[in-house]
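We read letters as residues; the fold follows as tokens. A sample entry reads:
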Amino acid sequence: MFRASVLTLFPEMFPGPLGTSLAGRALGEAWQLELFQIRDFATGKHRQVDDTPAGGGPGMVMKADVLARAIDAAAPEGDPRPRFYMSPRGRPLTQERVRDLAAGPGAIILCGRFEGVDERLIEARGLEEVSIGDYVLSGGELAAMVLVDAVVRLLPGVMGHDQSGTEESFEAGLLEYPQYTRPQVFEDREIPAILTSGDHAKVAKWRRAEAERITRERRPDLWAKLKGE
């Protein structure tokens, strides 16, 4: 069973969206969610989890010693799961990485806040920094939910159709082709005739051509990668 251990200052945010739809129905059956309140691992009267940045500057930085204790509790020695720190400076999360994770035992996910975490913690605990996009959120919780949702939907038995996870954007290096359904005519716009022709070979060829067209137009970076440019 895939096991996601999330370290956060706001465990009340979970399961949130992960408790609904596909992920919610599979929770407890195909995957488990464990939550660790980072503040529980702080010491002192005020249980301080952050401090001012060395060298000066605005904001606060999450303390390495507190986070280390939290990670060690979530992932005892020998735990084979990868350790992630959700960060806008991390490597972009890709569908390929998601598929690899779905085939593994789970993940330990640290949700940062404030100006980030002490760099020594990242080094000492072997955290892999992961980004879900070129923008900054208030914290890592929403990013962690994105990572978990992307993985959980690929776990065996979660999606209703075996091909649902293979015929979609990024799986073949392309964006997905357009989709249509009834009614046949919507505001004078008809479903492309080829899709109702019954000729599966022509449908497959059309879908491939449309996927290539959309990828060229919207994601030239993906198209260049696919063509080896």
Remarks:
- The chain has two domains: 2-152, 167-229.
- DSSP finds seven helices and nine strands in the chain.
- The mean pLDDT is 95.
- The domain at 167-229 is CATH 1.10.1270.20 (Trp Operon Repressor; Chain A).
